From TrEMBL:
It holds the Pfam family Acyl-CoA_dh_N. This is Acyl-CoA dehydrogenase family protein. Transmembrane segments: none annotated. Residues 139-229 form the Acyl-CoA oxidase/dehydrogenase middle domain. Its cofactor is FAD. Keywords: FAD, Flavoprotein, Oxidoreductase, Transit peptide. It comes from Dactylosporangium maewongense.
Length: 395
């Protein structure tokens, strides 16, 4: 076993967190890194610039072939790996681009998890093996045009009609929406909020793609429109009512973001370190100046703390004791600090920091979306405030 005492010091692992990982976890991390380097890194800046991901289905199949889709779920063709292994995969995916991690996160932690946790057995058998292999793509419809942080006020409705359900409404900012084969849709019913697995080829279902984004441009984002969509009762999730269902799924996705944000931070930190070592001003490398070293150290300290926090939450999740408030703490802290790291890296690259020849401005712009999706800073702050004071301040 390689330890900090026998290997060369890593300037991006000041705490030697590598020593805490198992051989299997390292193998997962390294395999994901190779996949990203081979299939995505050579193209992602161009995808971002042009705002499209060509051959997204082929990419999804490649991710499925590696076992990355629903990798933390058991059965139905899923890999059943540890929460830490899943987190490390998210870190490496987002070190390439937040849009890539979003594709995997929405597929596995939102759409697949919802079906795996709440769907009927027939629904699981119908969708999960194909989704795990990447042959089918899923999306998750909760956010609406007028209701983001307040999902309890959603307007999408589902009503019984004989043995079927009729769904009407709109969902907004849906990752994978226009390429999805199945949409997990949450709607208000006479029985409370319920979830449905809606095949996207159902009459009345459409998913126009959202254009003109300044963030997550290497990702498919859509609106979902449900205009009298009729589905059989067996597509409804039978045993969950209210917001417990969608919030349980969001908790899974937020955990992955806690790791993923640190991938974007690491990418920017590495670029800034390399750049300042090579770039000369006033006859010296930028890295030789005290103010430059101060920025690099501050970035690295926050990165190290963020990875340590993510690792701690992962071990708690694997032990079955992770709480939603702890996930809120991780998401709140790590995305906020990752964004600050990216912005600081931008200053160290000067004008080159806004060029897509480097990943820094792309990561920073992406994290502006990650900062507010899966729960805004304000909402996660109030979750923790309620835990501390016992007083809910959401209204």
């Amino acid at each position: 076993m390689t330890t900090s005492a026998t290997r060369q010091p890593d300037p991006l692992d000041l705490l030697d967190l590598e020593d805490f990982l198992t051989d299997d976890e390292r193998a997962v991390r390294d395999a994901v890194r190779r996949l990203c380097d081979d299939l995505v890194e050579p193209h992602v800046a161009e995808w971002y610039e042009h705002g499209r991901v060509p051959q997204v289905r082929e990419l999804t199949v490649a991710l499925g072939d590696m076992g990355l889709l629903g990798m933390h779920l058991e059965g139905y063709g899923c890999a059943g790996l540890s929460a830490v292994a899943y987190g490390l995969a998210c870190l490496e995916l987002e070190a390439t681009d937040s849009g890539l991690r979003s594709l995997v996160s929405v597929q596995g932690s939102l759409a697949m998890y919802a079906i795996w946790r709440w769907g009927r057995e027939e629904t699981k058998q119908q969708w999960l093996p194909r989704m795990a292999s990447g042959q089918a793509i899923g999306c998750f419809g909760l956010t609406e045009p007028d209701h983001g942080s307040d999902p309890g006020s959603m307007r999408t409705r589902a009503r019984r009609h004989g043995s079927d359900w009729i769904l009407d409404g709109r969902k907004m900012w849906i990752t994978n929406g226009s390429v999805a084969d199945v949409a997990v849709v949450w709607a208000v019913t006479d029985e409370g909020v319920r979830g449905f697995a809606v095949p996207t080829d159902s009459p009345g279902f459409s998913a126009p793609e959202i254009k003109h984004k300044g963030s997550l441009r290497a990702s498919v984002t859509s609106e979902l429109v449900l205009d009298g969509v009729r589905i059989p009762d067996e597509f409804a999730f039978p045993d969950v009512r209210g917001l417990k269902g969608p919030l349980s799924c969001l908790n899974e996705a937020r955990y992955g973001i806690t790791w993923g944000a640190m991938g974007a931070a690491r990418s920017c930190l590495q670029v800034a370190l390399d750049y300042t070592r090579q770039r000369e001003q006033f006859g010296r490398p930028l890295a030789a100046f005290q103010l430059t070293q101060h920025k690099l150290v501050e970035m690295n300290v926050e990165y190290a703390k963020g990875v340590l926090l993510a690792w701690h939450l992962g071990r708690r999740k694997d032990s079955g004791v992770l709480t939603p408030a702890q996930v809120s703490l991780g998401k709140l802290n790590n995305v906020r600090e990752a964004l600050d790291i990216c912005r600081t890296a931008r200053t160290l690259l000067g004008a080159n920091g806004v060029s897509l020849e480097y990943p820094v401005i792309r990561h920073a712009a992406n994290l502006e979306s990650v900062l507010t999706y899966e729960g805004t800073v304000e909402m996660h702050t109030l979750v923790l405030g309620q835990l501390m004071t016992g007083i809910p301040a959401f209204r």
